[in-house]
Amino acid sequence: MSMAGNLRKVTSLGRVGGLRKVARLARRRPRVDLSHPARSPLGSSVVNCVAYRDGVRAPAPGDLVDTLERVRKSGDGFVWLGLHEPTNREFAGIAELFDLHPLAVEDAVEAHQRPKVERYGETLFAVFKTVCYVEHEELTATSEVVNTGEIMVFVGRDFAITVRHGRHGSLGPLREELESDPDQLTKGPSAVLHAIADHVVDDYLNVIDAVQADIDQVETDVFAENGARADPGRIYQLKRELLELKRAVVPLGRPLRDLAERPTRVVEPEIQAYFRDVSDHLLRATEQIAAFDELLNSILQAHLAQVTVAQNEDMRKITAWAAIVAVPTMVCGVYGMNFKHMPELHWRYGYGMVIGVISVACLALYRGFRRNGWL
């Protein structure tokens, strides 16, 4: 049976009968990324479906099946299908049409996956964690600093399928940027994979720069004059958010090295050199996150040391004043015992002498404590 016959057979299956309906919905609505700043968030899970030939967007008057059929008949170009948080029902027909592995399909629909790159026959499946910095006027112990999402990419000989989860990580501007560079798009679907990886890693670096500003502010507050009164909850919150960033960045190191070093049929040799550059940028991000983690540990230890020093200062002041107050307490306690035969009890100047002795003793103690830094 011909390729066209196979495609028609797929679309006629009952379990994927909604495929053409989904494609028609996508054609009637703007095929754009849902979080593009100038566009409406309304639309089906199919965000865009475009065929590229010789690095240029090709006319696509039909639906997804027709577009893929023309590409495979010509033997040139590829299809880039973009989706946003598809359901199992919406993705079932697409998985059947492109012959995607069930395990990869499950990961793409359910999300919450660890960054990875897996090979299923002639198809490459990649998972990227996207991150964005959450703006806030003032960092508090409950401020959200880093928000994460996911992008899954299926790459085959003549197709690239992107599945995005989350309200950030828009691929609309990225698609437009790629379309402005036809030479890169002529390298096929692997060029899309590289562009997404590069885009995601660049976002890592941007978020890291923004987090560094928060860390610098916390460091300044801790080492200020009243640093012992700084809220340690902000430090713990930054460490938690940094851990979230670390979970997105660090696991991606090995998959990127594999893409840069291990030959793969669906990745052009020219693109592998570009993956090495992305891997270098990711290494820089990983090193910065490790440095931030160590710096936050140092800041936390410094804050705890400041709190301990401040408590010791308070204890010394309390002890010094207690010693000073002990002098009149002792003398007055002795003369308040109401014994009849006590020294100087009936002397005219006895009261003044006792007050003078108490005052001199207290003044001497006060000057001694001040000289030693206790007061």
What does the model show?
The protein is an alpha+beta fold and 375 residues long. The chain is 57% helix and 14% strand. The chain has helices at 3-12, 19-28, 64-74, 88-98, 102-110, 172-179, 182-185, 189-222, 232-249, 253-261, 269-335, 350-371; strands at residues 46-53, 56-58, 78-84, 116-120, 123-133, 146-155, 159-165. Helix 11 packs antiparallel against helix 12 (350-371). The longest helix has 67 residues, at 269-335. The termini are far apart. The model is unreliable at 1-43 (pLDDT under 50).
Rg measurement, Å = 35 Å
Largest beta sheet: strand ordering: 2-1-3-7-6-5-4
Q: Count the helices. How many? A: 12
Largest beta sheet, briefly?
7 strands, mixed
Provide the descriptors you would attach to this structure in a database record.
single chain, rod-shaped, alpha+beta, 375 residues
Topology:
Blueprint: H1 3-12, H2 19-28, E1 46-53, E2 56-58, H3 64-74, E3 78-84, H4 88-98, H5 102-110, E4 116-120, E5 123-133, E6 146-155, E7 159-165, H6 172-179, H7 182-185, H8 189-222, H9 232-249, H10 253-261, H11 269-335, H12 350-371
Parallel strand pairs: 3-7
Antiparallel strand pairs: 1-2, 1-3, 4-5, 5-6, 6-7
Helix pairs in contact: 1-3, 4-5, 8-9, 8-11, 9-11, 10-11, 11-12
Compact description:
This protein is α+β, with helices and mostly antiparallel strands and 375 residues long. Helix content is 57%, strand content 14%. The protein has helices spanning 3-12, 19-28, 64-74, 88-98, 102-110, 172-179, 182-185, 189-222, 232-249, 253-261, 269-335, 350-371, and strands at 46-53, 56-58, 78-84, 116-120, 123-133, 146-155, 159-165.
